[in-house]
Design goal:
The protein has 202 residues and is an all-alpha fold. Helices cover 78% and strands 0% of the residues. The chain starts with 9 loop residues before the first helix and ends with a helix.
Length: 202
């Protein structure tokens, strides 16, 4: 059982306890009643903070995605060349997803379900990834590192060529492929994409 502080805000305490239940048992076995029991409150009180179990699930995913998204912003804000930043963002996405898949498979499955259902949490997360990549592409085009006339085509290329490494569903499908092998494939595909962006042939 997860130990939480009674001085912790109630919504965070509920969230921590619910995440711990999902981590141990999977989302299918979580109930609001069981979370309320561990939190020492009525299930009606849980609904004051999270109006539905799906809202609670969304909050669980958002909790671990926030530092991932913050990392992308830090990369995009860095003074490094655009091609370095693009590579780091893609690699960061892939490694963050693979790490979560390996260390917290039930929490990762919960987020994949959000992606499959097209929930707002998944859409917002993808939009943040797209926004940071778009920023880097704009910077690279303005500085002459990326020889691309159409930004939309450049963005489409990145997502088409690197989808396998930036899609949580694809990362989950590759769970049985050794980590080192997938990291190597990601690195090679990123380098190929960067060459195309710099070639003036897109």
């Amino acid at each position: 059982m997860k130990v939480t502080s009674q001085s912790e805000p109630a919504d965070l305490r509920i969230l921590d306890l619910a995440a711990d239940q999902v981590r141990k048992l999977g989302a299918g076995r979580l109930t609001i009643v069981s979370v309320a029991r561990e939190a020492g409150m009525s299930h009606g009180n849980v609904y004051r903070y999270f109006p539905s179990k799906e809202a609670l699930f969304d909050a669980i995913s958002e909790q671990w995605l926030k530092p991932v998204e913050a990392g992308w912003r830090m990369i995009a804000d860095a003074p490094d060349p655009a091609f370095d930043k693009l590579e780091r963002i893609v690699v960061s996405a892939h490694r963050s997803y693979r790490d979560k898949l390996e260390t917290d498979p039930h929490l990762f499955d919960l987020f994949c379900r959000s992606v499959e259902e097209g929930r707002s949490t998944a859409r917002k997360h993808r939009n943040k990834l797209q926004s940071e990549i778009q920023r880097v592409l704009e910077e690279g085009m303005a500085g002459g590192l990326f020889d691309v006339a159409d930004q939309r085509r450049a963005l489409a290329l990145v997502f088409d060529a690197l989808y396998r490494f930036m899609s949580p569903i694809s990362v989950r499908l590759d769970r049985d492929t050794p980590r080192a092998q997938m990291d190597g494939r990601c690195d090679r595909c990123v380098r190929l994409t960067l060459r195309i962006l710099s070639s003036g042939r897109l």
